[in-house]
Amino acid sequence: MIEVIDLHKSFNGVDILRGIEFRVEKGEILALIGKSGHGKSVLLKHIVGLTKPDRGCVLIGGEDIGKSRGNDLERLRGKFGYLFQGGALFDSINVFENVAFPLQEKTRLDKEKIREKVLRELDQVGLAGVENKYPAELSGGMKKRVSLARCLCTDPEIMLFDEPTTGLDPVTARSINNLIRETHERLRFTGVIITHDIAQIVSIVQKIAVLNEGRIELTGTPEEIKSSDDPLVRQFFEDERGGPAIS
Ligand SMILES: Nc1ncnc2c1ncn2[C@@H]1O[C@H](COP(=O)(O)OP(=O)(O)OP(=O)(O)O)[C@@H](O)[C@H]1O
Ligand SMILES: [Mg+2]
Predict the structure, then answer these.
(1) Measured between alpha carbons, how far is residue 145 from residues 173, 174, 179 in Å?
(2) Shortest CA distance to 143 belongs to which of 112, 171, 176, 113?
(3) Hey, is 22 helix, strand or coil?
(4) Which residue segments constitute the domains of the chain, with CATH numbers given?
(5) CA pair distance 169, 155, nearest whole angstrom
(6) Beta 215-220 vs 207-212: how paired, if at all?
(7) Which residue has the higher pLDDT, 41 or 198?
(8) Whether the model pTM is above 0.85
(9) Which of 3, 37, 168, 186 has the most CB atoms within 10 Å of its CB?
């Protein structure tokens, strides 16, 4: 479903992605782990076609998203829900309007149905009652949960999560992970999740890929990765209480 083939990208002469290869089968979630600054978010932006590769490609259901234009690109992008690392809420509209936005753009649901869906989704992320607030009035964790509600509400075929639990307290982080798992069980979307939350992620995903210095150093099932003696992987498991490893 998602195939990343020999993906290269540099910025200002610095190689960030140096021949990334992996695939995610339909209905499967892959967790991407790796040190800060090694290109995880850049990789995710290539998958949704926001950034163009210098070399190589990303195929979505066999179609090269980096080469798609116009209606084709729109159609491919329409398959995605994307939780940006920073949340990327619109500051000038309230929470309700933020979550409703993709429903208004991508679906033909009437106002009442949209209202129902938005309120249900906010309730699911534990934010019932905040629909009239503006992003500036929310804590970092609340913004993240609003972004998650916005990402899940269109029931997308493919979901990309860039650090959905970073910066949240452990209880909220667990509830977000549970929500991702339940939504996956219900919708069977294809997904990529960037996370440092290695202990909890093993029960959600089917595959883990380790990104290091611009390449995928290791891919395997959570069990395989857990028992790997790769030093970086060990560091991730051992450091999980101390937070993500810094490059
Ligand atoms: N648009 C851009 N222009 C120039 N450099 C960029 C751009 N986007 C990312 N970079 C650089 O690419 C590198 C990888 O960034 P990226 O955001 O993918 O890291 P990351 O692995 O997601 O890190 P973190 O875990 O901290 O989120 C960084 O050095 C960053 O400065
Ligand atoms: Mg990032």
Answers:
(1) 10, 12, 11
(2) 176
(3) strand
(4) 1-79+159-247 (3.40.50.300), 92-155 (no CATH)
(5) 26
(6) antiparallel
(7) 41
(8) yes
(9) 168
